[in-house]
Specification:
With 396 residues, this protein is of the alpha/beta class. The chain is 43% helix and 14% strand. The strands form four sheets. It has a seven-stranded mixed β-sheet with strand order 2-10-9-8-7-3-4, sandwiched between helices.
Length: 396
């Protein structure tokens, strides 16, 4: 059969620009600042191995059997306790365990977006969310950002009226590494309460604050209006593919129905293994070691950028997370720059794919957590030489 009868939705599918770039970076000689991958040095393999052995020794049949769509109850209880505050108690019935937080994005698209629905997104926003939501043909409305993240004042009543939800990543956003200050969180929460604006708070990086000084979640500030997404990928290991959603009852119910149709439930064995790892406070000791490593890697890249980048280049100073966002001077096209960089064995992600509308051509994302400091220095120096050459060519 030459032509399969694909649906219109399938015909509209596009590949992730990052995933395509990652194929190139598999070459060992390439210094890759491209992938948003956690450092393998942070994976607690010994603890996961021991937990798997306990689960398979003590409850093998339950671990290998079908289980509830909502997820393993002790794990949901652990998540609920971790997100409860004196002002708001999260109940286990508010929690749905998902197969990575990427599945949560897909499920939310299914239950909240119709063709043409207005969805508010940051400019730039997480590419994986844009790719997931785009399957349901929304009308994206971009919300302005600055070095402190999303600008609440830009959320005028005309902008929010009729919007299905605002998708936001307030902690060390992918791609920019920005963290939303407390005053802006409070302003966003007030808008959500006053106008009934639903907010999807995607928070895979919140624990990665280098100084361990967390800020309140939007969930804690406006629990009736916020759907919170979390993940074990950045604090344990992405290969586990476990995330979670905390949602108001009506939303939770619909998410459960959508997940039943998608995969019945996330893997029973892995849910029990993760619970065994985290139940006795392991993360409280483990996460500081991740913060220490990532902070040192980030400082190495910031120092290299300061030494090598030409005048006019601008980048943020992350207080956590895995990314630095760079804006280049002139009208340098970072898509073209990438081709040159890969030819010199350096990779990054151009910024344009992270914009739902009106993408600038002169931005890029750098990830530093999987590259040793000496390689960071070498890669940034190479990239800066290519940028300087491009600027010199424009000036000639």
């Amino acid at each position: 059969m030459n032509d399969w009868p694909f649906s219109q939705r399938a015909r509209n599918l596009t590949s992730s620009a990052i995933r395509e770039i990652l194929k190139v970076t598999e070459r060992p000689e390439v210094i890759s600042f491209a992938g948003g991958l956690p450092s393998p040095a942070t994976f607690p393999a010994d603890q996961i191995r021991a937990a798997a052995n306990r689960v398979l020794s003590e409850a093998p049949h339950a671990a290998l059997q079908y289980s509830a769509t909502e997820g393993y109850l002790p794990l949901r209880e652990w998540v609920a306790a971790r997100y409860s505050t004196p002002q708001h108690t999260v109940k286990p019935d508010d929690v749905l365990i998902t197969t990575g937080s990427q599945q949560a994005l897909d499920l939310l698209g299914k239950i909240l977006i119709d063709e043409g629905s207005r969805v508010l997104v940051e400019a730039p926003s997480y590419l994986g969310a844009l790719q997931s939501f785009s399957l349901f043909s929304p009308q994206y409305v971009s919300v302005p950002t600055d070095d402190d993240g999303l600008v609440p004042e830009a959320l005028s009543p005309a902008l929010t009226d009729g919007a299905r939800f605002l998708y936001a990543m307030p902690n060390f956003q992918n791609p920019t590494g920005r963290r939303l200050p407390l005053a802006r969180r409070q302003a966003l929460a007030a808008i959500a309460r006053d106008r009934g604006l639903p907010i999807v708070e995607d928070d895979p990086y919140g624990a990665l604050d280098y100084e361990g000084k967390s800020l309140p979640t939007l969930l804690s500030l406006a629990p009736d209006h916020v759907i919170h997404l979390g993940s074990f990928s950045k604090v344990l290991a992405p290969g586990l593919r476990l995330g979670y959603v905390i949602a108001p009852p009506q939303v939770h119910f619909k998410l459960v129905q959508a997940k039943q149709a998608a995969d019945l439930h996330s893997p029973s064995l892995l849910q029990r293994v993760v619970y065994e790892v985290v139940k006795d406070g392991f993360l409280d000791a483990h996460i500081p070691t991740i913060r220490l490593l990532y902070s040192a890697q980030c400082r190495a890249m910031l120092d290299a950028l300061a030494r090598h980048m030409p005048a006019g280049a601008h980048w943020n100073q992350p207080a956590g997370g895995m990314f630095i966002w760079v804006t280049l001077p002139g009208n340098i096209d970072t898509m073209q720059l990438l081709e040159q960089a890969v030819a010199h064995n350096v990779a990054f992600v151009p910024g344009a794919p992270f914009f739902a509308n009106g993408a600038p051509s002169n931005t890029l994302r750098l990830s530093f957590v999987t590259v040793p400091p000496a390689k960071i220095e070498q890669g940034v120096a190479t990239l800066a030489r290519l940028i300087t050459a491009a600027l010199d060519k424009q000036a000639a």
